[in-house]
Design a protein that fits this description.
Elements: H1 7-11, E1 20-21, H2 27-46, E2 52-60, E3 63-70, H3 73-77, H4 82-94, E4 101-108, H5 116-128, H6 133-146
Parallel strand pairs: 1-2, 3-4
Antiparallel strand pairs: 2-3
Helix pairs in contact: 5-6
């Protein structure tokens, strides 16, 4: 049986950076890893149509920084920051963050037509709206090639 390795594992430290930056030992490691997965799941379910590309989590002794890299930062932030404040409140009550401050930053993707996750979400959204799959794929490939992909 062959050994399968996640493609991100090959690229870490070379062309990709880690999505979580923290250190823990023993049982603390598994607890924080599960918490990271829950945080990512909550953000992705809340911001489904915002084109979220990456969610980076940094942990310090008294602070947690979450950076949301998205194609549509206006949807993530909302009017006067309403959506981001609601998301921050939900994350604070969900995670075991007692005694730690939570900071959520929103960063726009440099080129959304080249980002694989954003493109895939766009394709899925169009297929859900029952657009012809050949047409969708042709348009996406043309748009990506024009933008330099």
């Amino acid at each position: 049986m062959g050994r399968k390795v996640n493609p991100i594992g090959f690229r870490l430290g070379v062309i990709k950076d880690w999505e979580s930056k923290w250190f823990a030992e023993g049982k603390e490691y598994s607890k924080l890893l599960v918490e990271d997965i829950e945080i990512r799941k909550e953000i992705r379910s809340t911001l489904g149509r915002a084109g979220v590309s990456r969610i980076e989590i940094q942990r310090f002794p008294k602070q947690i920084n979450i950076t949301i890299v998205t194609a549509k930062p206006g949807i993530v932030i909302g009017r006067r920051g309403a959506n981001i404040n609601a998301l921050k409140a939900r994350l604070e009550e969900m995670a075991d963050i007692k005694g730690k401050s939570l900071r959520v930053d929103v960063v726009e993707v440099a080129n959304a037509e080249i980002d694989a996750r954003v493109v895939a979400e766009g394709i899925a959204e169009q297929l859900e709206r029952r657009v012809a799959h050949k047409r969708v794929m042709r348009q996406v490939v043309q748009r990506t090639m024009r933008s330099g992909g």
